[in-house]
Design brief:
With 573 residues, this protein is an alpha+beta fold. The protein contains 18 helices and 25 strands.
Length: 573
């Protein structure tokens, strides 16, 4: 551009989609300010008397910003801007406003609305909707033309969020692959394209399940994320038979059978090199076949004991139990509380620490465990838990994992295996650790045999983990604690409790994954003698080293979980 003025790029401005705590430090006190805008060179905040005083005196102020979980302290000059004050950073050339893409969660309902050719060419990615605006990941200052185009397509105002260019490009490639179509606008008559979109959306949202519910008005598609069902989209009824047939073909199910439940599984490769396995179940209903697709082991980090949420002392007790050469370790709780995940994480730890012959019998196999011979119970009863266990004992096992103890025969084999030199890990359906002994007796086990073999019982629940970037604290007074029935839940009033917010790190939901609540009954010699002497559940409860209520109290005070989620988890305890 010879002879003309050099092109001037706008300084990146960031209207934060995450909670930004802005504090004015004065006379040793921290005063919270309401942030209106933020850039690499300054900010705009609502008026405050101390800012007025600093403006008149021409002095600088010290501010603390919390960008997500990153604290930043800056000196700033103050200037009035109408009803607000402008702040210009002093002694800092720029403020690091680039977000780490790897920490962000993406809402596929928005990400897949933008045509892939536009997203890939302009390096744009809608992240989520927060307070009526769509957070838009960009890697350079956004020009007005692109911003208006995105706003027209999404029918929402956008809020730019600056991210590192190469990381955004990798995320876009993982999301769109080599496609140049508009996934969010996929032809509703194309069953193959629709299924690919649903699987891509579920993987992007880190969903555990996809539910296809036929209704009179059409097909309702929902994703289960962090244990909660979210509506994704609705499809016309005419596409449902083709979509169901497509899934059945992939899962090896009979497409002609529509009046009986079926099961199947298949592996999906979205074209990005990250394939995953799905378990499929169909069920005939009034308005057509219902399908449930379970996405298996999308994130193998959940198979590490340290990621489950146990307190260090309780984790050490679990490790001591699984490091013993023989005995029975039980994990109990309702369906869907993560029992299998806990046991398989423990088995992975055993395999890392010593060379063992480990065999698992499960229904169904959910995780692929390298180094473990995994046997699946089948629907035709050719392989049942008792049959498999009797055969396993002839294969010289060191460690046996039983997916679930369902009947007296399975329990009898498990107890005798634990008594004869094998370490047995198993799950059981009970509400608490102490009620496990009662349940085993009801199933026909002798108390002396339970006392001789049982080493540890872990009862658990799952609660959603609050997003640490946008959670809000609120004080809990004694009157509030009484109104909220803290004592009825086994909790005491904490000085501070926490509730969910909304930011780009949690896709506007306020939660990031789930964490376990744990109760441990460590069976030492004293507890073993009590079991053999027919002790009651109340007597055994006093021997629990850590109860669900104690764990809930700790997670409430630490801001890990909200009171509402803890209330729900403890309701059946």
């Amino acid at each position: 551009m010879s002879g003309g003025a050099p092109e001037r790029r706008r300084a990146p401005r960031w209207r934060p989609a995450l909670q930004v705590a802005t504090r004015l430090l004065a006379d040793g006190a921290a005063i919270h300010l309401e942030l209106e805008d933020l850039s690499s060179s300054g900010a705009r905040v609502r008026a405050h008397p101390l800012l007025e005083e600093a403006n008149r005196g021409g002095c600088t102020v010290t501010l603390e910003l919390s960008l997500g979980s990153v604290p930043v302290r800056l000196e700033a000059r103050v200037a009035r801007r109408g009803t607000s004050f402008g702040l210009e950073w002093v002694g800092a050339r720029s403020l690091p406003l680039t977000l780490d893409v790897r920490l962000l969660r993406v809402d596929p309902a928005w990400a897949l609305k933008l045509p892939s050719h536009l997203a890939m060419r302009r390096r744009l990615l809608p992240l989520c909707e927060i307070e009526g605006e769509v957070a838009l990941a960009v890697c350079e200052p956004l020009d007005e033309t692109a911003q208006k185009a995105v706003e027209r397509l999404l029918e929402r105002p956008v809020r730019p969020q600056f991210v590192e260019a190469e990381a955004l490009q990798q995320l876009l490639r993982r999301l769109h692959g080599e496609s140049r179509a508009a996934p969010g606008a996929a032809d509703e008559e194309d069953a193959v394209g629709l299924l690919a979109e649903l699987l891509r959306a579920a993987a992007l949202r880190l969903a555990s399940d996809i539910h296809l519910d036929p209704e009179r008005s059409g097909l309702r598609v929902r994703l289960r994320v962090d244990g909660v069902l979210e509506d994704y989209r609705r499809l016309p009824a005419r596409i449902a038979p083709e979509l169901i047939s497509r899934i059945k073909v992939l899962a090896g199910m009979d497409i002609a059978e529509k009046r009986a439940p079926q099961d199947g599984r298949f592996t999906h490769d979205p074209g990005t090199g990250n394939s995953f396995e799905l378990r499929v179940a169909s069920l005939p209903t009034r308005h057509g076949e219902r399908m449930a697709l379970r996405l298996l082991a999308l994130d193998e980090r959940t198979l590490e004991l340290e990621s489950l949420g146990m307190e260090p002392a309780e984790l050490e007790r679990l490790l001591l139990a699984v490091r013993k050469p023989h005995g029975l370790v039980l994990v109990t709780g309702p369906t869907g509380c993560g029992k299998s995940t806990t046991l398989q994480a423990a088995l992975r730890r055993i395999l890392r620490e010593r060379a063992v012959n480990a065999i698992a019998v499960q229904d169904p196999i959910e995780y692929d465990l390298p180094g473990v011979a995994q046997v699946e119970v089948d629907a035709a009863h050719k392989v049942t838990f008792p049959k498999a266990l009797r055969s396993i004992l002839r294969h010289d096992p060191d460690v046996i994992l039983i997916g679930e103890i369902r009947d007296a025969e399975t329990l009898d084999i498990a107890l005798k295996a634990a008594l004869t030199g094998h370490l047995v890990l198993a799950t059981l359906h009970t509400n608490s650790a102490t009620s496990t002994v009662t349940r085993l007796v009801d199933m026909g086990a002798d108390r002396f045999l339970i006392a001789a073999t049982l080493r540890l019982v872990v009862a658990q629940r799952l609660v959603r983990r609050l997003c640490p970037h946008c959670r809000h604290s609120w004080p809990v007074s004694e009157s509030a604690a009484s109104a909220l029935e803290f004592s009825a839940l086994g909790l005491r009033a904490a000085g501070t409790a926490w509730t969910a917010g909304a930011c780009v790190f949690c896709a506007g939901r306020g939660y990031q994954g789930r964490i376990g609540l744990f109760e441990l009954l460590d069976i030492d010699r004293e507890v073993s003698a009590r079991i053999a002497a027919d002790a009651s559940e109340a007597e055994l409860e006093r021997s629990c080293s850590h109860t669900l209520e104690q764990d809930a109290q700790h997670k409430l005070e630490a801001g890990v979980a909200s009171l509402d989620d803890l209330r729900w988890a403890l309701a059946g305890a």
